[in-house]
Design brief:
Elements (H helix, E strand, L loop, with lengths): L1 H8 L3 E2 L7 E3 L4 E3 L7 E2 L4 H16 L15 E7 L4 H7 L9 E8 L6 E7 L5 H20 L8 E3 L2 E3 L1
Length: 165
């Protein structure tokens, strides 16, 4: 999903997600080159821009991703929820004692017009996508604080099934 978010962010070039910038094998830090481009999507640029604008609207236009908004940065994203068990089975399975709450997703990239970061947050039993968007907000706020040399934001507090700032 992070690869798909990056593909949308950059206009259709498929890349391999990576997190390593440099490594030290005992001889000092050496930059690790980014992975090679996998391929390029053949998508109408107007349609690609419509998707990107829609993802921006999810975060900034009153959509379900508003919890990922970082002041001063154009975050784009999409929330999602995946069921662990069907609604019909949920009632019967509730007696099992297993955690059967739905999973929350949020895929994102930022900034919208010149993306520098893309990723995905998957919260197992996170109930729904807006909770995952809140975690993405912390990731993005940390990314930009480090980039700009600002103090790091405090981590979100966890309260039972919900995260809060």
């Amino acid at each position: 999903m992070a690869g798909q978010a990056a593909t949308l962010a950059n206009g259709g070039t498929r890349v391999t997600p990576h997190v390593l910038r440099a490594g030290d094998e005992g001889n000092g830090w050496k930059m690790v080159p980014p992975p090679a481009v996998q391929s390029k999507l053949d998508v109408d640029p107007d349609k690609m821009q419509a998707i990107r604008d829609g993802m921006w609207g999810v975060v900034n236009g009153g959509g379900t991703g508003g919890r990922a908004r970082v002041t001063g940065f154009d975050v784009a994203g999409k929330t999602g929820t995946s069921q662990v068990i069907s609604n019909a089975g949920r009632v019967a399975a509730a007696r099992s004692g297993k955690d059967l709450r739905d999973n929350g997703w949020f895929v994102f990239f930022a900034p919208r017009d010149k993306p520098e970061i893309a990723g995905v947050v998957f919260l197992e039993h996170g109930v729904h996508g807006p909770n995952a968007a809140r975690v993405a907000r912390h990731i993005l706020a940390t990314f930009y604080a480090k980039k700009m040399g600002n103090p790091l934001p405090p981590p979100p507090e966890r309260t039972s099934t919900r995260l809060s700032y």
